[in-house]
Structure prediction request, 266 residues.
Amino acid sequence: MGKRLSVVDLQKYKTKSRKIAALTAYSFYETRIIDSTAVDMILVGDSLGMVFQGKTSTIPVSVDHMIYHTKIVVESSQNPVIVADMPFGSFQISVEKAVENAVRIIKETGCNAVKIEGGEIVVPVIEQLVSSGIPVYGHLGLTPQSINKFGSYKLRAKHDDEALILKKDALLLEKAGACGVFLEKIPAELAKEVTLSLNIPTIGIGAGVHCDGQVLVISDMLGYDSELNFRFVRKYADLNTVIKTAVENYVKDVCSGNFPSNEESY
Ligand code: KIV
Prediction:
């Protein structure tokens, strides 16, 4: 039985130049398998809206959905830091409402920290959460909850004006007390500059090799979707083929009377 890492442990990794390996997870088996590896952090991302619920964006995900999945992930693991996303609508209405939702997520799930998308606009929320004892990760660059504003999931901060705002926002998040910042789909050189400018760790997804850590969405890296072809996703398995072949073989065996055998019967 391991001792669960804390956000402070991961902050120390940065001073030791040790990389943070993070993955998303949403359910029991995947969490249990991840927990048996050296993964440092599990992010219960609101990406669950797309890769678990099959929605076209993360926007419909609710606080109750986040609590349901985060509780499962916490209870199925002993080692990594568990971070839960604050879903769209849970922190925009007021600082008070944001604290109420974050307290629910932390208290009802036992996770270690929450993550909030956005720059300067979320500074008052981060300040209040941190002074209430809730560790918070920021999230800059491609922020999928703003899909209706951006209109696409394309690379962000390609041009100087947006890059400048992102660099300023990263420093503001650190000053507000964030314990780390996720950087999604931005140029690698910009992510390097941000990483060097901060004392807190950066965790990249589609943000190049210079971030202090990397995160991938578990279903993307395991190859559940044979059509998914994002440049930043390395597929470490082809579960689409593995599952499809297994199911096809099962159907063949059932239809031919080859399953169950005598050994598989009572
Ligand atoms: O929701 C999520 O999984 C995320 C990662 C892509 C960083 O926010």
About this structure: Residues 24, 43, 45-47, 85, 182, 184, 205, 215, 217 surround 3-methyl-2-oxobutanoic acid (CB under 6 Å).
